[in-house]
């Protein structure tokens, strides 16, 4: 019993440490409260045995999920700066929900804590769960990011059987973990597996077309995005300038073009006719001279395509956040198998609530600001190190 109590205390200490670390290090991550709740549920179950030690059995400690949760935390801590979500719920085409352990900007990560011998035995007996789960990850990632799916990562903490590694690699899943051989479970005939897997492999083709909506085009040419965020635009009686000033503050913290340029630079750029017309109208009415010059340079590389929204997007019900304009822009991008580059997160969330996942590369918004500089005050403090870099020109190198 003493050894069981020592192990009990060890697991409780582990859980308490995980909760503390989550609050101190990962509080910025979406879904962290759900992850903490899972840890606290395990702790609640274990702590009851301090009051009734006679009921404590070895299986109570063996069945604890704290070690698996610790593995997820360790990965989260490693990805800390790029981690966006933990315990993210994604949907399949039939409505089934699957849990994605960790989400970064470019990866969906599954943490696998099971012993490798158990994994390969299950596979051999036809009761495998890893490969079907990987295929569900691929399907869900395609639904949410049709033309730019994230890399699927399966992280095996105790090692991965070579057979399972081979299948996952064929599915273009990135495998992390020591590869282990189990000769007794090898099967030579894999032709049927390969035919079945082809469906998932072909779905992971990545588009080389970027659909730039009006929000993106404005952000690219805005003076705010191009080294002129060193102004204070705030006026108490003007809501637009308050909004503009918040953008300037955000730009001084972190410039937006370095987020966009690596994604679009080597792609073909398209824009729907409606978005192009709207952009031209806004530029003619609001843009300053520098912004107009950037707009002309930008248009030289754009391919304007006719409005041709996909039926899937057109069927979305109209609402405050689902406008005809947005449906045309996003839907035309989908018709051309392009990822839409946009700051229109309202449309993204509203469409997801309707069960429609659009392919989007999100960026922070910026408005045209050059004409407002005349009445603004210079703000030379807290400028970023890369404040003077001309990122816009790098689009055309």
- Any idea of the CATH topology of the largest domain? Rossmann fold
CATH superfamily of the largest domain: 5'-nuclease
Number of helices: 17
Q: Quick one: overall form?
A: globular
Count of distinct structural domains:
3
How is the largest sheet built, in terms of strand order?
1-2-3-4-6
CATH class (first level) name of the largest domain? Alpha Beta
* Beta-strand proportion: 5-15%
Alpha-beta classification:
alpha/beta
What is the gyration radius calculated from CA atoms? 26 Å
Instruction: Give the biggest beta sheet.
Output: 5 strands, mixed
Query: What distance separates the N and C termini?
Result: 71 Å
Named CATH architecture of the largest domain: 3-Layer(aba) Sandwich
* Mean pLDDT, all residues: 88
In the predicted model, the low-confidence regions spanning at least 5 consecutive residues are none
User: How much helical structure, as a percent, in the residues?
Assistant: 40-55%
Number of strands: 14
Structure description:
The protein is an alpha/beta fold. The protein has 3 domains: 1-64, no CATH class; 82-206, no CATH class; 209-394, 5'-nuclease (Rossmann fold). Helices cover 48% and strands 15% of the residues. It has 17 helices and 14 strands. It has helices spanning 2-25, 32-47, 58-62, 66-78, 116-124, 130-144, 162-170, 191-202, 214-221, 239-253, 257-264, 273-286, 289-301, 311-314, 324-335, 345-353, 391-394; strands at 83-91, 97-104, 107-112, 151-156, 160-161, 174-176, 179-180, 209-212, 231-232, 268-272, 303-305, 339-342, 360-362, 377-378. The strands form 4 sheets. It has a 5-stranded mixed sheet with strand order 1-2-3-4-6, with helices on both faces. The protein has a 5-stranded parallel sheet with strand order 11-10-8-12-13. Strand 12 (339-342), helix 16 and strand 13 form a beta-alpha-beta unit. Helix 1 (2-25) packs antiparallel against helix 2 (32-47) and helix 1 (2-25) packs parallel to helix 4. The longest helix is centred in the N-terminal third of the chain and has 24 residues, at 2-25. The protein is globular, with a radius of gyration of 26 Å. The mean pLDDT is 88.
């Amino acid at each position: 019993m003493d050894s069981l109590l020592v192990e009990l205390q060890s697991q409780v200490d582990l859980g308490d440490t995980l909760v503390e670390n989550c609050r101190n290090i990962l509080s910025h991550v979406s879904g962290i409260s759900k992850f903490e709740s899972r840890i606290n549920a395990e702790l609640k179950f274990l702590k009851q045995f301090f009051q009734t030690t006679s009921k404590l059995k070895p299986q109570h400690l063996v069945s604890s999920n704290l070690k698996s949760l610790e593995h997820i935390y360790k990965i989260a801590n490693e990805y800390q700066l790029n981690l966006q979500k933990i315990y993210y719920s994604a949907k399949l085409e039939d409505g089934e929900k699957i849990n994605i352990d960790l989400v970064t900007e470019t990866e969906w990560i599954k943490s696998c804590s099971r012993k490798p011998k158990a994994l390969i035995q299950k596979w051999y007996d036809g009761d495998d769960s890893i490969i079907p789960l990987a295929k569900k990850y691929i399907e869900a990632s395609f639904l949410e990011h049709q033309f730019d799916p994230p890399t699927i990562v399966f992280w095996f903490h105790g090692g991965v059987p070579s057979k399972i590694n081979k299948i996952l690699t064929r599915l273009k899943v990135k495998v992390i973990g020591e590869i282990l051989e189990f000769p007794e479970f090898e099967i030579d005939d894999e032709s049927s597996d390969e035919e079945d897997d082809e469906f998932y492999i072909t779905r992971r083709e990545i588009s080389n077309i970027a659909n730039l909506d009006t929000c993106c085009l404005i952000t690219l040419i805005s003076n705010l995005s191009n080294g002129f965020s060193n102004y204070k635009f705030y006026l108490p009686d003007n809501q637009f300038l308050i909004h503009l000033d918040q953008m300037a503050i955000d730009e001084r913290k972190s410039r937006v073009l370095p987020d966009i340029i690596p994604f679009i630079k080597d792609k073909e750029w398209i824009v729907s006719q409606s978005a192009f017309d709207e952009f031209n109208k806004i530029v003619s009415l609001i843009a300053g001279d520098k912004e107009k010059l950037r707009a002309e340079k930008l248009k030289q590389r754009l391919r304007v395509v006719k409005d041709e929204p996909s039926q899937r997007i057109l069927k979305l019900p109209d609402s405050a956040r689902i406008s005809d304009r947005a449906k045309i822009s996003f839907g035309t991008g989908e018709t051309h198998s392009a990822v839409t580059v946009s700051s229109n997160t309202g449309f993204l969330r509203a469409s997801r609530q309707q069960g429609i996942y659009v392919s989007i590369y999100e960026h922070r918004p910026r408005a045209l600001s050059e004409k407002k500089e005349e009445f603004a005050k210079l703000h030379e403090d807290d400028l970023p190190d890369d404040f003077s870099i001309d990122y816009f020109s790098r689009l055309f190198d």
